[in-house]
Amino acid sequence: xxxxxxxxxxxxxxxxxxxxxxxxxxxxxxxxxxxxxxxxxxxxxxxxxxxxxxxxxxxx
Length: 60
Description:
mainly alpha, 2 helices, 93% helix
């Protein structure tokens, strides 16, 4: 479930960055970049959870 949610967060961050860049709003651009980075970290966390669950399933 988190996969699509975090992809959507990444997309919204990209949109903020694009709008900030187009309008010269450096704060919005930076916020968008930060949102994207945070979403990517969450996606990595999701993948780690999936791998851990797979290993647990194999061991049990």
